[in-house]
Structure formats: structure tokens, C-alpha cells
DUF7129 domain-containing protein (Halostagnicola larsenii XH-48), 46 residues
Amino acid sequence: MKDVTTDPDEESTYECFACGAVTRATSPIECPECGADMRNREIPVE
Ligand SMILES: [Zn+2]
């Protein structure tokens, strides 16, 4: 059962696919270290 609510005004933890950098942001961003796409850590990956 998926019951993950995402509040757009609330920060989530994002992890870089490429280099593993972690940052907090309110929306999906590019990695500040390498510019790659970042993934929201708080949403489980299937
Ligand atoms: Zn990166």
C-alpha cells in the first residue's frame, strides 16, 4: 500500500545517482556536485 504524501513545501532528501551526493530540497534538482539527476530518497524505489 502506497501512502506516501509529498508536501511540495516540505524539504525532502535527494541523492545523486551519479556521485552519491545528498542534499535537502523542496523539489527535484540537479546535483550541485556533478549536475546529474537526483532521486528523492524518501520515496522507496521498487
Ligand atoms: Zn552528483
The two ends are 12 Å apart (CA to CA). The chain has one domain: 1-46. The longest strand covers residues 12-16. The mean pLDDT is 85.
